[in-house]
Amino acid sequence: MTDHAPGRLRHRGRGYVSTPVRVTAGIAGPLVAGLILAGCGPSPVDMVEHPVTTTPSRMAGEELQRSAEPEESCAPAPVPAEFPGNGVREVASADPVESTVEVPRSPERILALGRGAVDVACALGLQDLVVGISGLPHDADVYLPATLVGLPDLGITGITGQPGGENDDAAADADPAAAANAARDLNPDLIVLADSPDLDPGLVRALSAVAPTVVYDARSLNWAESTETIADAYGRPTAGGDLLLDVIDRARFTADATTPRDTWVSLVSVSDAGEIEVQQPDTLGSLMLEAVGAGRPPAQRTRDGQRIGPAPESPAVGDELDGDVIFAVVGGSDRSEQSAREAFATDRWTELDAVGARRMFVVDRAVWEGSGPVAARAVLDDIRSSINGIAPDG
After folding, report:
1. Alpha-carbon distance 265 to 205, whole Å?
2. 165-169 long-range contacts, CB within 8 A, separation 24+
3. For residues 150 and 127, is the Cβ–Cβ distance under 8 A?
4. Of 117, 120, 260, 278, which one has the fewest beta carbons inside 10 Å?
5. Beta bridge mates, 3
6. pTM of the predicted model, to two decimals?
7. Is 104 helix (H, G, I), strand (E, B) or coil?
8. What torsion, rounded to 10 degrees, do the Cα atoms 328, 332, 338, 343 define?
């Protein structure tokens, strides 16, 4: 027996929430028009002068601030399957060869290959059904529970969906036969796989020989549509739309509670080489700031996940890194802490107005460059708890 999920309203690209009509009907204005989400998990942390603190992370220090606990990030109980019983149903897939895939009506052993696949499983309370993972970022345990992060990892690391990562070509180098053998040992009845520019069609075919394999678009700009695709594959399409509704509500609450449009919010990224630059506009954190209508310094203005030039009336400003408040994205490897310490000791950094005013907060890369509703809720918590605050003394 083959069932088809109800048709869903989809708007591809640009990070807009693409949810059912019941989700989008009656919603208007710049907030939802720019709704693009960011990382769930720890709230921003203070990194003032030399202390390096993150919440929670291996860059431990005093004054830990937490808006979420990894062990509490997943739904405590599984969302009921919307297609109970045996048999299969057809769902959409981003695989260019197979645009639809027949999957179990109610999967019981899931291989979640990609951060979005793991995030959505967590949000739906399906963590106990996941038997294996891959593609999670370094320090994913800052926002995902140990029960998920510690599962067998197939090692397909090039499926993060983030541009410019160290492992962008890893999917092309993955051995399809080895990956399939590792998958077979876990006996899944469903595989959900993140797409990537270098994804080997042979890998998809090899995994499909093990279990039905659904491919989803892993780009951050399309995280909302991907949430729908993944939730549909898991047999819970309506619940996937509800997750997006919840994020919309949280974004509205964040905007109303903090009036971010009245603040110039600078978002920067610290590389492992100690370089500080404006964060890319198509990452989850940047998209979430746009979602809540946050003001941005003239050199950092974005629209639909793309950088746009300063408005003609914008006054001349100083350093492009500065703002009324700064969120600094740190993490990604074991070298990150030392690199951040060195970067934050430079004259350029210490002379920024926001740093002098103790209005700089460190946030985890695993979260702010994440994908999915769990990460999105956490980024909103970070914004709400810190955007109008002052970092505690280190």
Report:
1. 45
2. 166/333, 168/196, 168/197, 168/198, 169/198
3. no
4. 278
5. 89
6. 0.82
7. strand
8. -30
